[in-house]
Amino acid sequence: MSATAPGQVRWLVTGAAGMLGRDVLSVLAADPQAEVTALGRADLDITDAAAVLAAVEGHDVVVNCAAWTNVDAAETEEAAATAVNGTGVRNLAAACAKAGARLLQVSTDYVLPGDATEAYAETAPTGPVNAYGRGKLVGEQAVAELLPERGYVVRTAWLYGEHGKNFVATMLRLAAQRETLDVVDDQQGQPTWSLALARQLAALGRAALAGRAPAGVYHGTGAGRTTWCGLARETYRLSGLDPERIRPTTSAAYVTPAVRPAFSVLGHDGWAAAGLSPLPDWREQLAEALGTPAFTELAAAARTSESDRAQ
């Protein structure tokens, strides 16, 4: 790596071609003090310890957005999923320990059992109910073990954004194809815009380098709570569509290979120790996200379809 100017911070973003990774890159691109290395899956296999060691060398902060994200496939391919979400994270943590770098590891609400009635604190006992969650927990444990002073686990949930497949985009696409949609209304969670999370990760990285943010677990999800049905209806309402086209149903109507937690509401008290505010309310994030080009295009097509059906 070339010499870095005084005041510059050397960032490494893994999984840089994914939905969250692309947003992290866009946030860091606006920071004149950030010197960024972007590595997608084709550039770096995080299960390759030697390659990870070489990639991390010379960096100050590593943001790991690389992950196995197919929750249902993990049920039959748990070893492969854990190789990425567990062993791969251990490789990154070990490399960061050697390089003296901070690691920001993006994790998930799925490490929790999902049986609570009040928001899970960052210190709540873990207890994943599916293979994906078990693998992600292995990654969290590696960060805590190998980077007790420089490791940061940021759990997120119900993530959507411009640059990948996600629930919000799917709802808008289906709005142009179907008169009504049945959407699960018995799972509680916190929709989170990937760009808002990317901004939070960048802020946490800077706070970590400045010595203001204690290592440990943070919850990077939107404030408030809703259901998938509630998210779909709010997406329609904000997009100028009829929210009554969304009809509530239960999880029993959509049986999947992997069990989903019924309650994925996380508490956000940890951010105060880092001098940072939690992410905004999920509705505020959604309103801003729907103003971005990819979503406005989908919404326009859905409104046209709705209007045509009404004639």
Give a verbal description of the structure:
The longest helix has 22 residues, at about 80-100. About 45% of the residues are buried. This protein has a domain at about 10-165 and about 190-225 and about 265-280: NAD(P)-binding Rossmann-like Domain (Rossmann fold, 3-Layer(aba) Sandwich), CATH 3.40.50. The termini are far apart. It is globular. Helix 2 (about 50-55) packs parallel to helix 3, helix 3 runs parallel beside helix 4 and helix 5 crosses helix 7. The chain is built from nine helices and twelve strands. The strands form four sheets. It has a six-stranded parallel beta sheet, sandwiched between helices. Strands 6-9 form a two-stranded parallel sheet. It has a two-stranded parallel ribbon with strand order 7-12. The protein has helices spanning about 20-30, 50-55, 80-100, 130-145, 165-175, 195-210, 230-240, 280-290, 295-310, and strands spanning about 10-15, 35-40, 60-65, 100-110, 150-155, 160, 180-185, 190, 190-195, 215-220, 225, 245-250. The protein is of the alpha/beta class.
Specify the CATH architecture of the domain at 9-164 and 192-223 and 265-280.
3-Layer(aba) Sandwich
Annotation, overall tally of beta strands: 12
In the sheet with the most strands, the strands line up as: 2-1-3-4-5-10
CA-based shape: globular
Query: In angstroms, what is the radius of gyration?
Result: 20 Å
CATH topology of the domain at 9-164 and 192-223 and 265-280: Rossmann fold
Given as residue ranges, the uncertain stretches (5+ residues, pLDDT < 50) are none
Secondary-structure element series: EHEHEHEHEEHEEEHEEHEHH
**Cα-to-Cα separation, first versus last residue:** 62 Å
